[in-house]
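[job 4471] stage=fold_predict status=RUNNING
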Amino acid sequence: MRKGLILTALFCLAIPSTLAAQPKPFDAESLVHTRFVADMVPSPSGDFAVIRLTDWDGGDRFLSDYHLVKVSGAVTRLTGSGKSSGPFAISPDETQLVFFGEREGKKGLFLMGLAGGEPRLLREMPVEAENIRWVKGGIFFSAMVAYGCGADFDCTKKRLDEARKTTSALVFEYLLHRPWNSWRNGTFSNLFVMDPEGKQVDPVAAGAFDVPAVPLGGRESYSVSEDGKTVVFAVKFGIDQARSTNFDLYETTRGPDGKWSPLKRLTSNPGTDNDPILSPDGTRVAYLSQDTPGFESDLWRLRVVERANQQVATPNEKLDRWVTAFDWAPDGKRIFYVTEDTGYRPLYVLDLGKGTIEEEAPRTVVKKMASSRRFLWHTRESMTAPPELWVMDVKTGATKRVAGFNADVTGRSFGRVEEIWYDGSKGKGGSPRQIQAFIIMPSDPPKGKKVPLVMMLHGGPQGAWLDSFHPRWNPMVFASMGFAVALPNFTGSTGYGQEFVNAVSKDWGGAPYEDVMALLDKLDKDTRIDAKNACAIGGSYGGYLVNWIAGHTDRFKCLVSHAGVFNLASKYGTTDELWFPEWEFGGAPWTNPQSYEKWSPHNYVKNFKTPIMVVHGQNDFRVPIEQGLGMFQYAKVMGIEARLVYFPDEDHFVSKPKNRKFWYETVGAWMKKHTGMK
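[job 4471] inference complete, writing structure tokens
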């Protein structure tokens, strides 16, 4: 019987002073070896949490293992293979862990004692269990099942096997048929509950709908009461899935006979209602909500609905910032929440009775958080510090750092982070908008010489650069190459008020482009930065903006467009979510052709002059592959120096460790070549 391995020394000891005196730069190799907290579940008491930590051993994929972290900071590694640590949950009595994985050729739900020992198979399953929760009423999870099969998972497997024997063809009569990176195969994400002995599985919410939503919905899409008798979840009904953003909250309750009641609708907002969390006493549901139908970047508000009468309250109605995470305090009188604000995600406590708000963690970035009876567990990070675990005492508000997992990384040499504000594009009334940008300077720039500039453009467009440790677009890697890095939060960015967010819609190549060029002008006056020797790089909308730049200025020495939109009308016919272009461009290409024509980069190809690298993944269905192929081919025909970097096994993101490392090295080499760096 294997005992858990104590890893406190490995993860938490400081770098020896002899090494700290001459730290190595934080480069692409450092980034792919950085450990990230992929998931975090505190125990009911809060005395410990189990996390899923990712790591890399140089192989083809990231490893993933469970670790038990105590409030004291002690860390116990629970699994060591790194091969099959999937979704998990802690038992109500805090003695066991249930997880979906594979051991000795068998896939299914496994049980593991938290005091040590080998996992044992609880129930073998021919389909994957996801989004697991464990309460006194049983083990809840979701699974992709064929319509009509319910909890008979062998039925789903049989149907899929028979279909594959007949033909490889897939037939569709509905849209959103290939969401994000995969084709629908006739299965739906449904909710189930299993008894703790693994003998009986019952459907909780099953049918021709998805709970959680496919493809990116997660455990946050549903909530279960402590006794396991009430489940609240977010779901989108209707056949127009690709054009609607109308998620609503529904509940179902389990009667004395063990049967689940018909679904009861709790919200009727025409926009999005999502991420429900039942209050500790089970009478209310807190959730995130958007008012405007069809607009996925509308203001995310925190709301509370009474289950008994469906009365909805917005306790912090005047807040003009997106709420990005939240949870109930154990007393049911307060809610902990995180907002996005000027490049940070601070933590707040809202007292529902008094209406007071207290800021608990200012000027930091909190992403993952979950409440327990004693502590609020959460992560904090910055551009120079990977995510670390913190706890806050739910009664006193006292906070402390519990554990970090990257002493070898934090001991590296990072670039220096600065914040600036500058005049950008004109807003209402003709006055210039105030634009925030992060500037990263190399840690050891050459004396007496200006350093070349990298302008990094974020996606969305309703997104933002945060003072956070990005696993893919990490500016510190480029700073380690000797570049100054600029990260502008241009018009449309989140964290500056909803009016600022709204201003990018129907103006994709307008204000954001002006904001970028205004920053280039400002940095041209910085005596440390060679802004005349600059490259612009971006992904998704940032890739679009790079493509737009290609047709509107020659002030950059090189460009990198990753998953960038090139032909707006073509993208409308191949992307998965149609509500997005219909909102952003005021309709479809045939109802508002002027908008699509005006803002489509392919119409400005005659102006192309700048060398460009185009990066795209085959399985990107959000910005499909023809967008990258078109940009590359048009540039080559126009005689522009162009390079296509094609990933046959990636989607909208570059996720595999070797591919990620190659991405940084290839993009860096391209920029060094065109800026004259050795």
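[job 4471] summary: The chain is about 15% helix and 35% strand.
[job 4471] exit 0
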